[in-house]
Each structure stands twice: as C-alpha cells, then as structure tokens.
Amino acid sequence: xxxxxxxxxxxxxxxxxxxxxxxxxxxxxxxxxxxxxxxxxxxxxxxxxxxxxxxxxxxxxxxxxxxxxxxxxxxxxxxxxxxxxxxxxxxxxxxxxxxxxxxxxxxxxxxxxxxxxxxxxxxxxxxxxxxxxxxxxxxxxxxxxxxxxxxxxxxxxxxxxxxxxxxxxxxxxxxxxxxxxxxxxxxxxxxxxxxxxxxxxxxxxxxxxxxxxxxxxxxxxxxxxxxxxxxxxxxxxxxxxxxxxx
Length: 246
Hints:
Elements: H1 2-37, H2 44-48, E1 57-60, E2 64-68, E3 74-79, H3 90-98, E4 102-106, H4 120-126, E5 131-137, H5 139-150, E6 157-161, E7 174-180, H6 188-194, E8 201-207, H7 231-243
Parallel strand pairs: 3-4, 3-5, 5-6, 6-7, 7-8
Antiparallel strand pairs: 1-2, 2-4
C-alpha cells in the first residue's frame, strides 16, 4: 500500500508541471507586454515637426516616414533609440532634410531596433538616392553601425548619436559620432573602445551641455544627466556637425 501511495504522489507531481510551466509562460508574456508598452513619447514640439511645410514634405511610408527636402541625391536611413516613440526625432530629422539630407526614419517592432536590424534593406529598395548614409540614436545607432559594417558597399558613411559601433566600420566609409557631455545613459567606456572600430575618416564631436535625450524630443530619460543647453540648440549643433562633415 505504501508503494502505491508513493506512486500516486509522483504521478500527481508530474501532472502539476504543465500547469506550472503555463503559469511561468503567462508571467513572462505579461512582463514582456508591460515592458514594450512603456516607452518615451514624443512631445508637442516633435509633433509640430511631423507636419510638412514649404521646404520639407513628411510622408508616411511602408517602412516608416520620409522627410523629403530639397536633396535629390543624398539620404540618411535613421534608426530610433530603444523604447522611444519614433516621432520624437522629427525636429532633428526635419532640420536635416531642410539642409540637404533627406531622411528615411524606420519604424521598429516594439520600438526596439535590435528586433529588425536589417530594416535598412527595405529602405534602400524603396528609393533611388545615389548617396546613402545610415545612423541612429542610442541602440538604434549601434544597430545601424552593425548593418553598415556588413553592407559597407551600400553606404558612404555612418552617423551615431549617443551611440558606438561594436564592429569594424571599414574604409572608405566615414563615421560621425556625436555625444552630449552630460549624457549619463551612454556607456562612455564603449565610446572609447569604439574608436578602435572607426574608419580613417572619423569625426567625434562632444556637445558641451548636451545630454542623451535631447537628440530627440521626448522629455527627460531615466538615468540621463541634466542638459545645460536648450534642446533646440543641441539639435542645431548636431545638424551643423553632420552637414559640415559629410
């Protein structure tokens, strides 16, 4: 009788495992859903720059948005930062388009560029620009650099904002790296080690008083430093550095 009772207990324990596993899967799914639902949202300033004007036309596309300015031959594929609403980058990208660099902003799954690092392929197939750059902010910049490393023949250069490469950026590509002096989100040790992956044509620019979040327009980012320059000034300086070093 004792053996029979033990066997029943073992059988009962085995029957509990599917329920336990389902519960664990449910918890993980719920946690993932909560994680992706919490993100930084574009502010009113950003939404104003999502509107077309006399110089730049903002178009919805299958891959995201096109900021179509005066340029006929030069464009930038832009990967947004992690868990940041894509429209947050409208002030920066609108200004780049005004200054002769059309911008193709990619809409990433769950606002995470790591889930579609090859998104640039769709953008390149959608347009006929003769001179392409690729770049992005934070995680978006890292993933853009990774794509450029593997598809160097498709681009003229890489533009990284508060970001760094983790693979070699080969010549003859150029690299522009811009970071704010008060950026407490980016890993500065990785910025330093990333220089070893830079091509010969490399520009690094530190915006005095700038921080991580002000490359976009979505308010304060957790863990970031307090900027000592206005957001508009950081955007203007970023545009100036990019336009004058392409």
